[in-house]
Amino acid sequence: MDTSATEQSPKVTLLADYQQPAYLVDEALLQFDLDSAKTRVVSTLTMRKNPQGPEADCILDGEALTLVSLKLDGKKLEGSQFQRTTSQLLIPNLPDKFELEIITEIEPDQNTALEGLYYSGSILCTQCEAEGFRRITYYPDRPDVMSVFTVTIVADREKWPVMLSNGNMEDQGVFDDGRHWVRWHDPHPKPSYLFALVAGDLHVQQDSFTTQSGREVALRIYVDPENKHKCDHALTSLKQAMKWDEDTYGREYDLDVFMIVAVNDFNMGAMENKGLNIFNAACVLATPETATDDDFYTIQSIVAHEYFHNWSGNRVTCRDWFQLSLKEGFTVMRDQSFSADLNSAAVQRIDDVNGLRSMQFAEDAGPMAHPVRPDSYIEISNFYTVTIYEKGAEVVRMINTLVGDEEFRKGTDLYFDRHDGQAVTTDDFVKAIEDANAVDLSQFKRWYEQAGTPELTIDTNYDPIEHRFTLTVSQACPATPGQTTKQPFHIPLAVGLLDKSGTSLDMQLEGEAEPHHGDTRILSVTEASQTFEFINVSSEPLASVLRGFSAPVKLNYDLSNHQLAFLMVNDKDSFNRWDAGQKLIINILLELVADIQQNNQLVLSSLLVNQFERILTDKKLDPALVAKMLTLPTENYLAAQMTTPDVDAIHQAREFLKRNIAVSLKGLFNQTYEKLSIRKAYDFNADDMAMRSLKNVCLSYLVASGDPMQLQRCLRQMKQADNMTELLAGLRLMVDQSGLERENALRSFYEQWKQDRQVVDKWLAVQAASTLPDTLIRVKGLMKHEAFSIKNPNNVRALIGMFCRNNPVNFHAKDGSGYRFLVEQILVLDKLNPQVAARMLGALNSWRRYDEQRQQLMKQALESIAEQQDLSADVYEIVTKYLAAE
Ligand SMILES: [Zn+2]
Fold this sequence. Notes:
Layout lengths: L12 E2 L8 E11 L5 E11 L8 E4 L4 E7 L2 E2 L6 E2 L3 E4 L5 E10 L9 E5 L2 E5 L19 E10 L5 E4 L2 E7 L4 E12 L6 E4 L2 E8 L5 E8 L8 H18 L7 E7 L6 E2 L4 E5 L12 H16 L8 E2 L5 H19 L2 H20 L11 E2 L8 H18 L1 H15 L3 E2 L1 H12 L8 H4 L5 E9 L4 E9 L14 E8 L9 E2 L11 E5 L3 E7 L6 E4 L8 E3 L4 H10 L3 H24 L8 H12 L5 H7 L5 H6 L6 H18 L1 H11 L9 H19 L3 H13 L3 H11 L5 H14 L3 H12 L6 H9 L9 H14 L1 H4 L5 H16 L1 H7 L11 H15 L6 H12 L2
Parallel strand pairs: 2-12, 18-19, 19-21, 22-24, 25-32
Antiparallel strand pairs: 1-23, 2-3, 3-9, 4-8, 5-6, 5-9, 7-8, 10-11, 11-16, 12-15, 13-16, 14-15, 17-18, 20-21, 25-26, 26-30, 27-29, 27-31, 28-30
Helix pairs in contact: 1-2, 2-3, 3-4, 3-5, 4-5, 4-10, 5-6, 6-7, 9-10, 9-11, 10-14, 12-16, 14-16, 15-16, 16-18, 17-18, 19-20, 20-22, 24-25, 24-26, 25-27, 26-27
Bound molecules: zinc ion.
The site of zinc ion (ZN) has 4 residues, from helix 3.
C-alpha cells in the first residue's frame, strides 16, 4: 500500500530557502504502548493551515517508522490519499482545520543511533534534538511548529515502574493485566525537539525549591538504583542555578516539577527537554571518591546550562536550525557567568578562552569553518560545534560588553517579554537589545554572518614631548570556505595603560574633557584600521590590550619577552597576566623547537624561571590562578602556533622545558606541595579546589624532574587520597612512566573501581593519553577489555576520542598507524552511531597543515572513508568538506 522512494544523495539545506510552515499543530495527544520489542505510538494532532504560511501540501517528517494507520477527522485514509518516502509523509487536499490520527510502530531495541526512542541499558529514553522526533512518529519536525503536548504512557508495571514525560503529571492508574498508565500535560507550547519520554526502574532523589514568587517546585533526579548516593551535587547545583537565574535575569521556573534523568548511553552531554532534562550520567553523577574537581565543576555548569535553557531555548526557541546559536550561544554565555559568579572568575575566563582558542580557532581555520549563524548544512547534527556554542557565547558577551550590564539586562528582559512562546532568530535577539537601549548593532551583526577568526594588529607610539600615546588597531579576517572577503567587525577592545612601576595610568582620548579613571576602558573598533590618541600621558606606557579577552580574535602585538615577563607579574587584569605568561612560554618553546630542528644545544631561559619563582612566592595571588599560570600550553595548542607543526619536536621541547623548570625550582615546588598537603575532608568549594589544583601542578613538576623519589611521592599521594582529584592526578603522572609501578597502579585502580562506569571511563582515558610509544597497541588491547563497548559513546570518547584528539605525538605517528586506526573505528561507528562517528573525524580537521608525508597519509585516510558506499550523511558531509577545501 505504501510507495517507498529510494534514498537520495545527501541534500543541502539552505537558510535562504526558509519558509514558514504550511500547517501548524495546536495540540498533540500522544499515547505510547511500551513493549520490549515494539512500541506503538498513537498520535492525534489538532492541525490548521498557517495563515502566514505558503500554499503547499501538508508534509510530515518520519524516519524508520512502520505506519499502521492514518485517519483524517476520524476517517481512514487509503494509500492513494497520501504519499510516503523514506523520510516524509505527504497529505494533499486538506481542509483549513482538521484532526489527524497517526498510528506507528517503532523498535527501540534496534536503535543504536541513540536518536528518537532507544534503550540505555534497561531504561527506555528519548533524544529528539535536532531531528529525533521523526523517529517516533510522523510530525512536522521543525522548531517553528510549537504545540501543547499531552502524553499518555502505558506499560508493564514491574518492568517500567517509573514513566515520565514533559510538564506536570495529571493522572495515573492501573489496569487489571499488570500494566499501568500515566498522563503528563505540558501547558507551554513547544517544538517537537523538546519532547521527552523516560521509562524504567529508577530511583528518585528529591528536593524542592521555592521560587521568587513563592511557588514550591519539586526537584527530582532519577538514576539507576546503584547511583542513588551520587545525586547531591547535581541537586545543589540545580538550586544554585534556579536562584541565580532569578537574581541575574529575573527568570522564574514555570512548572510544578523539574526532573533530571541520568542515562549511561547518550550522544551529547545533556538535553534540556521541557521539565525533563536527560543527562549523560557522566555529566550529573558525582561523589568526592568517584569524581574530580573538574567533574564537579563541569556538572555544576551543565546542570545550570540545561536549566537556563528553560527560558533561553524553550520559552523562546529557534525559528530554524540555522539559529541554533540563538539558544546555545546565549545559554553558554549565561552558564559561564554563573560559574564565574560561583567560583574563581579569573580561572573561569582562562578556561573558556583556552577552550575557544584550542578548539574553535582550529575549526575557524579549517575546512568546516562556518559562521555563528551558518547558511547551509547537510546534516544539522554536524553543526553542534564549538563555533555555534563557544564563539556564539563570545558574541553575546561582546554585546554585553558594548552596551553595559544594566543595558544588557534591559535588552534581555525585552527579548523574553517580546518573544515568549515564539520561535525566533538571532536578528530578533539583537533587535531586542537595540530597541531596549536605542543602540545600533547593525555592523556588529557581521559576527553572526562572517566565519573566521579576525586578526588584530596593534601598533603603538609614544611622543615624550607632547605626552601623547597613539594606539593603532588594524583588523583583517582570513578567507573561509565560501567567504573570500570580509567586512570589518565591530570589536570591543578592552585596554589599560601601565607605567614602568606597573601602576595604571589615566586614559583620556583626544577630544575628551575628562580622563577615564579606572584600570580598563573599552574602545569600540569598527574600521579596518583605526587610531586612538591618548593625551596627557606623563610617561611612556605599556599597553595591556584585549583585557579579559574582550573579543574572540587573534592578537598580533609585538612585545618582547621582557615586556611579557613584566605583564605576567604586573598586569591589573588576571586574564592578561596569565595570557602574557602563556605568550612568553610559547615564544620560548618555539625557539626550543627551532633549536631541535637545527640540532642545536637546548638552553633554559632564566627569565621564565625567575617569573615562575615570583608567582609561586606571591602570597596575594589566588592559588587557582597560580596553578593556571604554571601550566604549560598543550602540544595541540603549540602545534596551532606553527605554520607546519612538528609534533615530535614540540613534544621534545615541552618535555625539556618542564623538566628543567622542575629541576631549577625543585625546592620551591617541594615546599609548596608539602604546605598544601594538609589532610582535611573533601569539600567542593573554590578555595579547596584551588589548593588541590596547585598541589597537583607542583606534583607534576616534581615527577618531571626525573628524581625517582618523586615517583614514590606520587604513589603515596594515590595511596592516601580520599578523593578522585588527587588519585587521578597521580595516575595521570604514572601512565607516562614505563615500568612495573605503572602496571601495578593501573591494575589496582581498575580492581578498586571496575563497578563504576564513570571511573572506568577515566581509567580508559588516562591510558589513551599516555605519551609512551606503545600506547596505540594498548588502546587496541583495551578495546577488547570487558570495560569497553563500542556502542557506548562515553567509552568511545574516553578511549578512541582521547587517543586521536589529545595524544598528538602518538596519533600523528610517522608510520600512519594512528590514522589507520581512526579510519577503522569510524567505519565501524558509522554503521552504529553516525553522530559519534562524525565527531571522531574532527581529529583530521587540520590535515593540510602538516608536513608532506603526514598530509599524504591523512589524505589517504580520508579518501578511504569517502570511497565507502552508504556513508551516513553525518560522515559524508565532513569527509567531503575536508577533502574539498584548499
Ligand atoms: Zn545547550
